[in-house]
Amino acid sequence: MPRVDFLPSGMAADVAAGTGLVEAARLAGITIGLPCGGKGTCGKCRVRVTRGSLETRAHALSDEERAQGWVSACLATVITDVTVVIPPESDASHPTWLDDGLTPAEEQAIDLRRLSPLGHRVQLRVDVPKPEDGLADLDRLRRCLSRALDGTTPEVPLGVLRALPETLREQDGLVTLSLAGDNENTRVVDCVSGRAHTPVLGLAVDLGTTTIAVQLIDLESGQVLATRNGYNAQIACGLDVISRINYAVRPERLEDLRERAVESINRLIREAAADTATPPHAIICGRISGNTVMTHLLLGIKPEYIRLEPYVPAVLSLPHLTAKELGLAVNPEAVLSLSPCVGSYVGGDITAGLLTTDLVRDGEAPPCLFLDIGTNGEIVVGNKDFLMTCACSAGPAFEGGGIENGMRATLGAIDHVTIDQASGQAAF
After folding, report:
1. CB-based contacts of 82: which residues, under 8 Å, 6+ apart?
2. Strands 418-419 and 387-392
3. Do 73 and 30 form a contact (C-beta atoms < 8 A)?
4. What does pTM read for this prediction?
5. How remote is the C-alpha of 281 from its chain's centroid?
6. Which end of the chain has fewer CB atoms within 10 angstroms, the N or the C?
7. Strands (E), 243-350
8. Which residues pair with 217 in a beta bridge?
9. Contact present, 29 and 52 (Cβ < 8 Å)
10. What is the pLDDT of residues 42-87, one digit of tens each?
């Protein structure tokens, strides 16, 4: 098997002949940034071969660069032993995270009426077992729940059921249950003996193409406890949604994108929970909003057909999911819902944004304009009677995506220019 040595890190990987250089780097624990998603159009994943050779295809590099041993990593295939130098600008192994932990103002809170019935807590004393009544522990729990919830009988998942016999008997049937869901489908997320004193929390996630934001909300008071923002680690695999779609063409790359999204969210959840000194296990429900492509990638669904005529996504809206299904580091039985998307490039983020305004509720309001300017930007015009929308690649347009010297607004980008009065020369 050919050996690939990577410099300056000193890491190496033994791979089968025909393995892509990007995959070989990943096996060695290195992430090579692919701004265009691996299509070979930007030339910004260039690496230099100092020993051996790589099989390459035509790419965006100049004849002079190729003569010096430079190749586009996304188009290079390992065929023999080779040594490759990865310059700092091509190495995305250690991204510079945004450090935007925000402390919400004391008055920042959410109307409790808008939280209900996403998540709440119920205390019960479940009837003790009686000889020959024919009722199992689950039957008695459901009977008491139905009385407390005006006839509603929530689903009790297997994880809760496994602990139920001991939980019901620890304090003579006194239990505290955390419930989450909606009027049509409520679920018991947690059941503990006695009176629980830990907070019951909700999670809000804005899954953006470039940045992700999370908030922790106390579901009993409506108080926003913590806000955390950070980069989406998928950036290394493409700067915009089309680049991500291109990157996700193979199953292992689709899974890579899914894992990067999940870990980015989990990192922010851990930071927000640490800010508030609350355990992530206390999060019993959540809402995730993202554009259509980001929703597909989080779910591990191939997004390829979103960019191909007639531009049909695999899914626009979904039933509730659990945290363990998505891999989020909160209560594994927590009920999570994804804001419904509208079309191929008009996603759940714009849906969630509209629902926080009076645009869709005030019947007498004149037509208004609503803008969501992100990497994937959406524009909506209308009022309660009608809504018209369109989408565009706003981020790459403003950040120079797709041009030789363009880059995202991050470390290394020029953010100011001064002109020397004597020489007239520009300095950065």
Report:
1. 2, 3, 4, 5, 49, 51, 52, 53, 54
2. unpaired
3. no
4. 0.85
5. 19
6. C
7. 283-290, 321-322, 335-338
8. 202, 224
9. no
10. 888 999 999 998 999 877 788 888 889 999 999 999 999 999 999 9
